[in-house]
Amino acid sequence: MFKKVLIAEDHEIANISVQKTLQDLGIQDAKYVYYCDHALNWIKNALRDGDPYELLITDLIFEDDHIPQNIADGVELVKAVRAVQEDIKVIVLSAESRVGVIDDLFREQSIDGYVRKARRDAQYLNEALHAVYKNKIYQSPEIKEHARDKNIHEFTTLDLHIIALLAQGIPQKNIPFYLQQKQIKPSGLSSIEKRLNLMREVLEFSKNEQLIAYCKDIGLI
Predict the structure, then answer these.
(1) Which residue from 55, 130, 67 is spatially nearest to 92, judged by alpha carbons?
(2) What ranges make up the beta strands (E) of the chain?
(3) Does the reported pTM lie above 0.90?
C-alpha cells in the first residue's frame, strides 16, 4: 500500500473522512492541505528532498477566501503536479458527476482514479486506493455504469499511436521509445499503461488483443 500521500481538500469534514480511510489502511505518512498552492509546494519540496509523494488525492473545487492562490482548482493542480512529477498517482475525490468532465480528467490529465462524493464514498475511496496501488484505473460504480450505458470512448491521438504500435507487434515496454522518436507526449510507460487500462475498462475488454481487434474492426487502425 502507499506509504506517502498528499491530500488537497478544503472542506474539513471531508478531510477528516479521508484521514480515517487512510488510517484504516495503515497509511501513516499523510499530509493534509487546504490550498492548491500549498499542495504543489509540498510536492516540490518532497522531490527536492529525495522523498517524493506516491499519491495525490484532490478535490476539484476549492472555495475562494482571503488568501490569494495561483492555482484555483483541482484540474489546474493536477496539471501543475504532473509538470513536476509525471509519475505520481492521482485520485480525484469530488461531487462532480458529469461524465464528460470526468472523461476529460482521465483523457487529458491522466488521473488514475475518480471517486464521487456521495453515499458509500469512503468504501469507494478504499477500493480506489487498492486499485490504483496495483496500477489499475478506478471509477466509482455509478460513474462507471453511466459511462458504460453511453458506450463511449473518445480515442485520442496518443491512444491510436499506442494501439497501432501494439498491432505492429511492438512490446508495450518498448512503446515509450517509439513515441519519443515521434515527439509524442506523454511518452512514459506509466502514461501508456494508464491509457490502455482506461480503454479496456470503458470498452469492457480484458486483453490488449481485444482492443486491437476492436480498433481494426471499426477502422481506427
Answers:
(1) 55
(2) 4-8, 29-33, 55-58, 89-94, 113-116, 138-139
(3) no
* Set of cell numbers at residue 3: 506509504
Q: How many domains does the chain have?
A: 2
> Domain check: are 20 and 105 in the same one?
yes
Q: Looking at the structure, tell me whether residues 72 and 123 fall in a common domain.
A: yes
- State the residue range of the domain holding 137: 4-149
Per-residue pLDDT of the chain (221 residues; tens, 9 = 90+): 898 999 998 776 666 678 777 877 788 788 889 889 999 999 999 999 999 999 999 999 887 777 778 898 999 999 999 999 999 999 999 988 877 788 888 888 889 999 988 788 888 988 999 999 998 889 888 776 665 554 567 788 899 999 999 999 999 999 999 999 988 888 899 889 989 998 888 888 889 999 998 888 777 78
| Contact by Cβ (8 Å): 32, 10 | no
Residues 124, 53 share a domain:
yes
